[in-house]
Amino acid sequence: MAEDIVAGVLRQWQQVHPGLDTGPMALIGRLNRCSALLQQAADAPLRRAGLTRAEFDILGTLRRMDRELTPGRIARETFASGAAVTKRVRQLETRGLIVRRPDDRDRRVAHLSLTDEGRDVIDRLLPEQLGYEAALLDGIGAQRQHQLSDGLAELLVVLEGRLGSLMD
């Protein structure tokens, strides 16, 4: 197997500090590097459609939940700030992909839903995006992908438990 960039960094640290446990750096460094590479590559179909990943996530959230949502609920579902959601919602509304309906009792509250065009965009893009992502992972067998996903799910539960309260 070819050596990744993190292996070289770990080797350098071992030369400077022999015996240092670089295990956490190995895992977190590789996760960070994979994340950066995937963010660069995985959004190509979205860019071609004129969407950012964050906008796609908002459309996807509205589609998968299949009901009106407030911007605050979308922020929680997409792990974005309220201000970021507000900006993206404005852009998606301008493009005719979502519609905003004021609350009957509280005019400060908005309810968001997909337009027919928004539904068509997400329904067309999702299979294309998933196919593209599958192609990115093509060098890893299905069983190994499942194992990696399970391991990352385990890590995510641990991190959310430890860090979740710090990020609120």
Q: Any key phrases for this structure?
A:
168 residues; mainly alpha; 70% helix; 8 helices; elongated
Can you walk through the features of this model?
- The protein is mostly helical.
- Helices cover 70% and strands 6% of the residues.
- The protein has a two-stranded antiparallel sheet with strand order 1-2.
- A hairpin with a 7-residue loop joins strand 1 and strand 2 (110-114).
- Helix 4 crosses helix 7 (116-136) and helix 5 crosses helix 6.
- The protein is elongated, with a radius of gyration of 20 Å.
- The mean pLDDT is 91.
Strand and helix map with partners:
Blueprint: H1 5-16, H2 23-41, H3 44-48, H4 53-65, H5 71-78, H6 82-94, E1 98-102, E2 110-114, H7 116-136, H8 142-167
Antiparallel strand pairs: 1-2
Helix pairs in contact: 4-7, 5-6
Helical percentage: 55-70%
Largest sheet at a glance?
A: 2 strands, antiparallel
Whole-Å distance between the termini? 41 Å
Radius of gyration: 20 Å
The arrangement of helices and strands along the chain is HHHHHHEEHH
Shape: elongated
Structure summarized in a few sentences:
This protein is mostly helical. The chain contains 8 helices and 2 strands, in the order ααααααββαα. It has a two-stranded antiparallel sheet with strand order 1-2.
